[in-house]
C-alpha cells in the first residue's frame, strides 16, 4: 500500500477482524485511542523532541550499491549510504528522495521499507530499499556541503567507510532483492501526534486456535495502542502494556516482538502530526509448566480481553507471518 492510501475510518463500523485484515494487508488505521501510556504524553515535535533519519539502499543492474562521499568535517572523504535527517512537513519517502537527490544526484522511487532502527522514540532511522529512476551521479566537480561525490560500489573493492553500521543494511537490501521475505510495505499517510505502537498481540493454542488481544468496550473492541516511553526501547512498550493487562501472570509469559507490519506517518502539520504509529506483530506464550496452554493468559484489567480469530483467512495470514518471520525488522540500539 502506497503512502497516499488513506486509513480505514469509521471506528463504529470496524470489527477486530476488519482491523486485522487491514493491518495484514499493509493498510493503516486511525489512531484515536491510547490504551497504555507513560506518566506524561505530549505531541512530539520533529527536530526538537524527536529525530527521524532516512537512509536509502539502491542497487544498479550490476548489484552495485549507491554510495556518497561525505563532506562533513567529522567524516570528510569517507563513504556512506545516502542518508540524513527528515525536515519538517516531509513524509518519510519525500525525505528519502530529497537526500538521494542532494547527495547522489539521482532520482529514485521507493520499493519498500527495509528495516527500522531505534534508540527509543527520540531517534528512529527508516531504511528504505529504492531504485534509480533518473538523474546523473554527482561528480567531484559538483561537490557541495551535502556530499563530495557519489559512485556505485561493488561491495568488495576497498572503500573507507564512515561507519560499518551500513554493511548490515546493504546485506538486508541485497537479501530482499534476491528473495523478499515480507510483502513490499511503504509508509502509510495517517496522522499521529506521538510515537506509539498498535499491537497485533497473538496467542496460539496447541490445537490451532488463535487469539488476539483487544481493548475498548466489549461491544466496540479494537486493537490496543500503546504510547512509547521517552527513554526506553520501542519494544519495551509491549511489556508495559502486558504488565497493566495481566500483572499477576506477566512474569510467567514469554513475549516476542516479531517486527513491523506497517508504519503510519503524516507530518504535514509540524508539531501536531509529527508522530509515528508502528503496527507491530507480537506473540505471547505460557512459560510455566502446569498452566493451561490451550487458553490465553488470564486478563485482569477490564480494559482488555482476548478475541478469538474466527476468520480462516485472517488466521492463515497471521500464522504465515509468524511461521516465516514475514515482517519488517526492527533493531534496537539499547
TrEMBL record:
Its EC number is 3.6.1.58. GO terms for molecular function: 8-oxo-dGDP phosphatase activity; 8-oxo-GDP phosphatase activity; metal ion binding. Its cofactor is Mn(2+); Mg(2+). CDD domains: NUDIX_8DGDPP_Nudt18. Residues 49-184 form the Nudix hydrolase domain. Keywords: Hydrolase, Magnesium, Manganese, Metal-binding. It is an enzyme of class 3 (hydrolase). It catalyses: 8-oxo-GDP + H2O = 8-oxo-GMP + phosphate + H(+); 8-oxo-dADP + H2O = 8-oxo-dAMP + phosphate + H(+); 2-oxo-dADP + H2O = 2-oxo-dAMP + phosphate + H(+); 8-oxo-dGDP + H2O = 8-oxo-dGMP + phosphate + H(+). Belongs to the Nudix hydrolase family. Mediates the hydrolysis of oxidized nucleoside diphosphate derivatives. Hydrolyzes 8-oxo-7,8-dihydroguanine (8-oxo-Gua)-containing deoxyribo- and ribonucleoside diphosphates to the monophosphates. Hydrolyzes 8-oxo-dGDP and 8-oxo-GDP with the same efficiencies. Also hydrolyzes 8-OH-dADP and 2-OH-dADP. Exhibited no or minimal hydrolysis activity against 8-oxo-dGTP, 8-oxo-GTP, dGTP, GTP, dGDP and GDP. Probably removes oxidized guanine nucleotides from both the DNA and RNA precursor pools. This is 8-oxo-dGDP phosphatase NUDT18. It comes from Scleropages formosus.
Amino acid at each position: 500500500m502506497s503512502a497516499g492510501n488513506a486509513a480505514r475510518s469509521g471506528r463504529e463500523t470496524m470489527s477486530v477482524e476488519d482491523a486485522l485484515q487491514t493491518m495484514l494487508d499493509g493498510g493503516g488505521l486511525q489512531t484515536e485511542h491510547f490504551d497504555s501510556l507513560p506518566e506524561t504524553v505530549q505531541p512530539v515535535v520533529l527536530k526538537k523532541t524527536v529525530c527521524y533519519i532516512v537512509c536509502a539502499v539502491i542497487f544498479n543492474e550490476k548489484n552495485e550499491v549507491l554510495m556518497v562521499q561525505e563532506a562533513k568535517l567529522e567524516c570528510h572523504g569517507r563513504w556512506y549510504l545516502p542518508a540524513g535527517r527528515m525536515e519538517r512537513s516531509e513524509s518519510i519517502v519525500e525525505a528519502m528522495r530529497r537526500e538521494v537527490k542532494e547527495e547522489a544526484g539521482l532520482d529514485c522511487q521507493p520499493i519498500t521499507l527495509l528495516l527500522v532502527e531505534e534508540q527509543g522514540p527520540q531517534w528512529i532511522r527508516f531504511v528504505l530499499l529504492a531504485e534509480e529512476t533518473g538523474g546523473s551521479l554527482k561528480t567531484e566537480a559538483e561537490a557541495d556541503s551535502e556530499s563530495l561525490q557519489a559512485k556505485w560500489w561493488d561491495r568488495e573493492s576497498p572503500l573507507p567507510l564512515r561507519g560499518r553500521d551500513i554493511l548490515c543494511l546493504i546485506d538486508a537490501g541485497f537479501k530482499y532483492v534476491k528473495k523478499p521475505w515480507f510483502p513490499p510495505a511503504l509508509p502509510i499517510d495517517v496522522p499521529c501526534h506521538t510515537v506509539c505502537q498498535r499491537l497485533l498481540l497473538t496467542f496460539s493454542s496447541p490445537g490451532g486456535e488463535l487469539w488476539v488481544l483487544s481493548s475498548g468496550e466489549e461491544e466496540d473492541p479494537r486493537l490496543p495502542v500503546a504510547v512509547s516511553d521517552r527513554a526506553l526501547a520501542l519494544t519495551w512498550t509491549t511489556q508495559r502494556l502486558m504488565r497493566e493487562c495481566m500483572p499477576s501472570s506477566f512474569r510467567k509469559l514469554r513475549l516476542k516482538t516479531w517486527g513491523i507490519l506497517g508504519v503510519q506517518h503524516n507530518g504535514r502539520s509540524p508539531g501536531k502530526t509529527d508522530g509515528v504509529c508502528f503496527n507491530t506483530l507480537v506473540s505471547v506464550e505460557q512459560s510455566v509448566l502446569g498452566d493451561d496452554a490451550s487458553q490465553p493468559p488470564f486478563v485482569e484489567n477490564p480494559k482488555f480481553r482476548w478475541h478469538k480469530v474466527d476468520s480462516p483467512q485472517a488466521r492463515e495470514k497471521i500464522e504465515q507471518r509468524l511461521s516465516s518471520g514475514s515482517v519488517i525488522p526492527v533493531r534496537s540500539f539499547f
